[in-house]
Amino acid sequence: MTDEDKHTSRRDVLELTGVGIGAAIGISMTGTVAARVPCTGCDGGGGGGSGSGSPPPTPQTGPYTVDNGEVELTGWAYGTDVEAWFEWGPEGDGFPYDTELRLIDDNASFTGHPVGEESGITYEYRAVAYNDYGRTEGATRTFSF
């Protein structure tokens, strides 16, 4: 073994000394760690502690339009830092599809464009709003063309 292998850094000395002194005089040290993580299932409780916040207000599901065979859904979302989109699907099948995501900075209208719909079929849709504290859903409406 060479002298180089026996080298102890200043950090190693301080760590060993601190542990030795703590053990010699019977000091017990404990600590805590906290993390801020959004909790979408906590009913507005945030990530623990004294979190404050709530899901966004219920969005409004607006009317639809058809232009050159393309359907456009309209809705309104309220609040700041809200993500909004539409869920949609054939009537009676639930909402298996989503439109594109829109970011809402302040109360605003938004649109969505279903992809893959067929003429002659009735579809249902609803506006959805989401923030760090949960999601809310607007009323269900239908469209067909």
From TrEMBL:
Residues 38-67 are annotated as: Disordered. Residues 42-52 have a biased composition (Gly residues). This is Fibronectin type-III domain-containing protein. The lineage of its organism: Archaea, Methanobacteriati, Methanobacteriota, Stenosarchaea group, Halobacteria.
